[in-house]
Amino acid sequence: MTEELNRMLFLWINATPHSAAWLLQLATFIAKDLIAIVPLLIVALWLWGPHSATRVLVLKTGIALLCALTISWCMGQLFPHPRPFAIGFGHQFLAHAPDDSWPSDHGTTIFTFALAFISWHRIWSGILLLAIGGAIAWSRVYLGVHWPMDMLGGLLVGMLGCLFSQLAWPWYGEPLMKYLQQVYRLLFSVPIRKGWVRN
């Protein structure tokens, strides 16, 4: 039943050879490049965040992301699922290795990030990232490299990653933050002294 729904939703979203060229180009940009917002935001918030709580957000989000991607890899090994093009289903418009598709690494990454911001930053920032995640999820199904359930799997794994990070924070938070601050101040001593980045 779930697989039938997965295939039905895929065919409803997936582009065809008759799809508009501009829409395929837009989807390709979203599918390949929009995920760069994750590392860019992490670096920007750490270097120029307005207060110390921002670095707590960065660290909790980073731990959630590592946990979510680890769970995603384990799930892929335990429950391998071929990509649509690997079984000749639908139309493919984005080059991709025929590795396991579930859950989506792109979906896991952006949804973990969005859920982390909803939980530990501001609702509006998390919703904005959730909308970006929705666009990435659509684009990768539209271009034929993922199933809709791959993206739902990424969302669920992102929830687990955030839950783990929150529950484990009392044990790892303070010592890890202290260590990272020391390493950062050592490596970035010159930019900090010149005022280019925050101490």
TrEMBL record:
Organism classification: Bacteria, Pseudomonadati, Pseudomonadota, Gammaproteobacteria, Enterobacterales
EC number: 3.6.1.27
EC top class, as a word: hydrolase
Catalytic reaction annotation: di-trans,octa-cis-undecaprenyl diphosphate + H2O = di-trans,octa-cis-undecaprenyl phosphate + phosphate + H(+)
Alphabetical list of InterPro entries matching this protein: PAP2/HPO, PAP2/HPO_sf, UPP_Pase
Keywords (A to Z) from UniProt: Hydrolase, Membrane, Transmembrane, Transmembrane helix
NCBIfam families, per the entry: PRK11837.1 (NF008813)
SUPFAM superfamilies on file: Acid phosphatase/Vanadium-dependent haloperoxidase
Protein name per the record: undecaprenyl-diphosphate phosphatase
PANTHER family (alphabetical): AT30094P, SPHINGOSINE-1-PHOSPHATE PHOSPHOHYDROLASE
